[in-house]
Amino acid sequence: MTLRDPAGDRDAYGGAARDGRGDALAVGSVLAWAAGAAVAGRHGVWLGLGGVAVACAIVLLALDGAHLVPRMRPTGPQLLLGLAVGGAMAAATHVFYPIAVRTLPAIAGETTRLYVAFTALSPALSALALVPVVVGEELVWRGVVYAALRRRVGPVAAVIVGAILYACAHAPVGSALLVLTALACGLVWGWLRARTGGLAASLACHVVWDAIVLLAFPLAPH
C-alpha cells in the first residue's frame, strides 16, 4: 500500500496535552459508537448509529474543530479521487454481490434484513440524513480515531487497525454481514484518508457509495 501520509498529519496533533485530548476524544467516540450500535440492534440503524454520528460530529467540531475543519476542506483532486473510488466501490459491490449470494445463499436474507433496518426512514428523509451522518462517521473514524492511531504507528497499520476497530464497533448491531462490510469499506476510506492527508476524499467516496448502494440501486428488495 503506497500512502502519501504528509508529515503535517502528525505535526498538527503535536504536544502531550494536545495528544491526550485527542486520545480522549477518540476513545469517547469509539465507546459512543459501540453504544449506538447496541441501540441500533433494537431500535433501528438511523436512531442508533445515525443519532450517534450526528451527536459526535457536533461534539467533535465544538471541541476540536480547529484541527478537524481544515482537513475537511476539499481540493479538486481529492474530490475527484473520492468520487471515482466511490463509484468503483459501488460497481464492484453490485458485481460481486450475486457471486457472494451464489456461494453463500444466507447472505441474501441478511442483506434484506439490513436494508429493512436502513430504510426505516422514507427515501426523502434518508437522503437528507445521509450527508450529516456520513460527516459524523468520517470525523470519528477517519478523523480523531485515525489521528490517535497515527501518532503511535505507521500509516498502513493505522489504516488496518482503524478498519478493524470500525468493524468491531458495528458488532453490537448483531449482523456479521454489516461487520464485514464495515471492515472492507473502512480499509478503503482509511486508505483515502492516509493517501490524501485529509477527509474530503473519504467523505466523497463514502457519500457516493452509500447513495448508490443504500438508496439509488439497492442490492436486495426490501
How would you briefly describe this protein structure?
This protein is mostly helical and 222 residues long.
Fold and architecture overview:
The protein is mostly helical and 222 residues long. It has one domain. The chain has 9 helices and no strands. Helix 2 packs antiparallel against helix 6 and helix 6 crosses helix 8. The longest helix has 28 residues. It starts with 7 loop residues before the first helix and ends in a 6-residue tail after the last helix. About 4% of the residues have low confidence.
Q: How many DSSP H or I helices?
A: 9
Whole-Å distance between the termini? 37 Å
> Which stretches are low in confidence, meaning pLDDT under 50 for 5 or more residues running?
7-14
Radius of gyration from CA coordinates: 17 Å
What's the number of domains? 1
- E-strand count: 0
Quick one: biggest sheet? none
Mean pLDDT: 91
Overall 3D form: globular
Alpha-beta content class: mainly alpha
What is the H-and-E element order?
HHHHHHHHH
Strand content: under 5%
Give the secondary structure arrangement, pairings included:
Elements: H1 8-11, H2 16-43, H3 45-72, H4 76-103, H5 106-118, H6 123-150, H7 155-169, H8 176-196, H9 200-216
Helix pairs in contact: 2-3, 2-6, 2-7, 3-6, 4-9, 6-7, 6-8, 6-9, 7-8, 8-9
